[in-house]
Structure formats: C-alpha cells, structure tokens
Design brief:
42% helix; binds the ligand Nc1nc2c(c(=O)[nH]1)N(C=O)[C@@H](CNc1ccc(C(=O)N[C@@H](CCC(=O)O)C(=O)O)cc1)CN2; binds guanosine-5'-triphosphate; binds magnesium ion; magnesium
Amino acid sequence: MNATDTIFALSSGGLPSGVAVIRLSGPESRNAVEQLCGSVPAPRRASLLSIRKRNGDKLDEGLVLFFPGPHSFTGEDCAELQIHGGRATVKAVLAALASFEGLRVAEAGEFSRRAFTNGRMDLVEVEGLADLIAAETEMQRRLAVEQASGGLSRLYDSWAKRLTHGRAMIEAELDFADEDDVPGSVAGSIWNDMRALEEEITNHLSGARAGEILRDGLHVVIAGPPNAGKSSLLNHLARRDVAIVTDIPGTTRDVLHVDLDLSGFAVRLYDTAGLRETDDIVEREGIRRAQLSMATAHLVLLLSEDAAAHWEEMLGDYAGPVIRVQTKTDIALPALREVRADAMISVRTGEGIPALLDLVASYLPDMESGSALALPTRQRHALHLETARVHIVSALEAQSAGLDIQAEHLRLAGQALGRVTGRVDVEHLLDVIFSEFCIGK
Ligand SMILES: Nc1nc2c(c(=O)[nH]1)N(C=O)[C@@H](CNc1ccc(C(=O)N[C@@H](CCC(=O)O)C(=O)O)cc1)CN2
Ligand SMILES: Nc1nc2c(ncn2[C@@H]2O[C@H](COP(=O)(O)OP(=O)(O)OP(=O)(O)O)[C@@H](O)[C@H]2O)c(=O)[nH]1
Ligand SMILES: [Mg+2]
C-alpha cells in the first residue's frame, strides 16, 4: 500500500445498475481523466463527456467530475466517472484505468483512510460513516448520520479543550507561584468546571448501553423446551423459512439468528436448541450453545406450550429480563389457558403476535423522536471515556498531592479523549477500523 498511488474503484453497488460511479483519488486523477475523456471538466462541475480507450474506441458516455485537492472527499485530487451500469461497460472502463501508469485498484476502505490521514475526518466520523453504510434501520441511520457528520467529535473535542484549559491554568499558577503579586489562586477556578465535566462524561456513558443496542440491535434469544414452537416463531417473525421445523423434539441444534426491524430499531432474534436433559452428544452441544447465547442476551423469550410450565427452572444462570410466552394457543384447551404467561401466541393463527412484539418493544431504549443521537456506540469509545473520567476524578482528589500531579491526571484524561477521535496514537487500530469498509469507500 503506497499512499502516493492513485487509486480507483467502483464506488456504487451491485451491477447491472442504472448508473455506476467510479471514483479516483491521487495525483494521477487529473491526467487519467484527460486521457480518457479528452478534457478535464471545471472543478466540481459535472460534464457529459465521451470516454475512450487510447486507440479511440468509445467505451461510454458519462458525467465526469474533477475535484482538485484539498477540497475533495479524500483531500487529494479526486475524479468521478458516472457511467452506465452495465457489467461490460464497467469492466471496460476499469480495465482502461488499470492500464495507466501509477493507477491501481483501491483496497477496502482506502478512500476513507486517505480522508482520515489528510485530516478530513477523525476516527469517530470514520466509524460513523462505516455504520451509515451498514445501517438497515431508521435508528441505526439516525445514530450513524449524527456521528458521521461530526456531532460526537465536536462533543469530545470540546471536552478535550476544557481539559487543556484546566492544565494551562495550573501551569500558569506553577510558573508564577513564587511571585508575590499573583492574585489568589488561578487554578482554583478550574475545579468547578472539571467537576461539571466529570458529570457530563458520566451522563454520556450512561447512554453507552442504549448506543450499543441501537447500533448492534437488541439481542433477543428464544429459549424453552423442545417442540415449544421456537423455530416456528423465528420463521413467522422473519417471514422466511429460516429454521427447520418438525414435530420431532430436539430438531434445532445450531443457534440461528435473523435481524428484524421493530419500529425502526434493529432486533437480532436467536433461535436455540430446546432445553432438556439428553444423552445425545450433538443435542447436548446445541443446548450448551443455547445457554451461551442466553448469557449475552438483552432479553429472553421463554416459550412453552404448557401453561403449567416450570419457567424458572429453564433459565439456568440467566438473570436478565424474561418474557414468558405460552405457544400454540390454537390447540391449547381453554381449560389450560390459565394466565401464567406474559404473552399467549399461535403462529398458526397469528393470535397474540402483535402483543408479543409490543412487549419486546418495551425493552428498547427510550428515544425521543427527532432528537440528535449523541451516544457512545462502541466499546472502544466507552473504554477511553471511562479512562478519561477516572483521571478527572483522580485530579479532583489529588489536592494534597500537589498541582503538578493534578495537571498530569488532566493530561492523561485528555490523552484518553484523543484516543477516541484518533488524534492520539491509534496507528495499531487503523487496519481494523478501515477493513470494515467495502471497496470504493
Ligand atoms: N457522487 C458522489 N456522491 C457522494 C459522495 C461521493 O464521493 N460522490 N460521497 C462520498 O462519501 C458522499 C458525499 N461526501 C462528500 C464529502 C466531501 C466532498 C467534498 O468534495 N468536500 C470538499 C468540498 C466541499 C464543498 O463543496 O463545500 C471539502 O470538504 O473541502 C464530497 C463528497 C455521498 N455522496
Ligand atoms: N398448532 C400449532 N402448532 C405449532 C405452533 N407452533 C409450532 N407448532 C408445531 O410444533 C412443532 C414444533 O415446532 P418447532 O418450531 O420446530 O419447535 P421448537 O421449539 O423449535 O423445537 P426444537 O427445535 O425441537 O427445540 C411443529 O410441528 C410445529 O408445526 C402453533 O402455534 N400452533
Ligand atoms: Mg427448533
């Protein structure tokens, strides 16, 4: 990977498509456009031009744009060829680009990586952009667009600035400590703000669970005895035949999951092996996996067709929230319909399903509609934010240790914040973060 190469890639999605966008970035972008199109359009203006091979053969006619650096997505010279999205057309134009000296196909995330390297985006924005491209539900989109457009970064930068100010005040006091005419304590004025900052970070961190649920989905595990109708419920909610359903107890062994959109929120629903004592090695492994998924669930739907079920016994070590669901109400005798469950459903008739979904939705984070979503979305963020918070507390509590020790804690707090946005040594993280992207981004 050489950062002075000029890179290109198909940045639009699957082919064929109405229009396909090929992006270029790097010093040879201008030359490549000139060779292929006969001229270079005015900066940032779309021009309809013919795209030709060196021998004059016409490949296509498309809208062509040139973005001189540094005012471009990557900060380098960039260009776009917006051509017809036929497979052969795209293949021919990509081949023509590859034939130029100094041009090569981009790696996954390489455009965004250059934007980061050139200071066009910080790490939090890059992660937001990756989430925006991956977003499948309205809440994932809202969270990601706020993060990608710098909402979170501005917050973290404003915190870092307050820490720097605090340190500057302490330094000033240390420098002038032996001069008699310095009035009062300069440093004394910052501690109220540091206390307030610590509180703001604590508040922000309390949204970390909501942020992770919004981004990754609420993890809901369907559990219960064999034959309860777990796989049938998964298939019903997925509206697809995802899991094998038979009337033989012990059908499901592997953990399967589907992603649902529940009023704009992502929900990841897991189907698991029926819980029972068994000598079958394969089934036992399935049950072990079922228990493992329960251990990390946000919510368990405990299914049983028997209203007299001993619900608690099936939960094992799981201590999180549970919705007890009585299944197959279409065949259950009215006499058996004692209300010992939280929900009663039939996937045959659809009875009780909307009520069950309402119950599940009540475990989703409480989001005000329309409000900006400035929540920590990744453990990486939460870990550094917590480190920053702890250092601020240490600074506040180190009164007797002296101002220079307090200043050092504030410096470490600022460094932790800098690791979130990528302004402080994050080199080792970059490959991981950028590999999340697709080629062309
Ligand atoms: N055709 C096309 N659409 C696209 C993109 C793209 O690269 N090409 N984007 C790719 O992700 C997104 C838009 N993001 C972009 C971000 C910055 C600049 C850019 O040229 N910025 C300059 C000039 C800004 C201005 O004109 O005010 C700059 O910031 O200096 C372009 C696209 C979504 N839509
Ligand atoms: N009448 C009726 N039958 C149902 C209903 N839900 C599931 N069944 C039947 O119950 C049997 C077991 O269903 P599954 O969905 O495979 O049960 P499971 O809980 O996944 O079972 P295991 O994977 O073995 O643990 C199948 O024959 C289903 O057709 C329902 O609402 N009404
Ligand atoms: Mg099953």
